[in-house]
Each structure stands twice: as structure tokens, then as C-alpha cells.
Amino acid sequence: MQDEEDEETLKDTVKEALHQISEKQYTQQLISRGIPKEKIRSYGFAFHGKKVLIG
After folding, report:
1. pTM to 2 decimals?
2. Is residue 32 part of a domain?
3. What radius of gyration do the chain's Cα atoms show?
């Protein structure tokens, strides 16, 4: 969900979501469980009311 204090647009929220995925190393955790890197996709979801942006 968009944090209106820190993120002006849904695009900013998606960017922050992708940053969090990288920062928390979720991809690395999956790789260590045997999932090939080529099969892993990262998506950031942002929504505000009925508006949704996926990036």
C-alpha cells in the first residue's frame, strides 16, 4: 500500500517494494533453497484505492 508520507506516486511505491526485495535478499534465500536464479521473478505491487501498479 502506498505510504503517502514517503511516496508521492504509485511508481515510487513500486520502486520501494523492489528495493525492499533486494535489501532483504529474498532472491538469495530462494536460490539457497535450490531454485534456479533464472526461474525467479521479482515484482513490486502498489495500490491506492482502486488504482494498482505492478512493476
Report:
1. 0.77
2. yes
3. 13
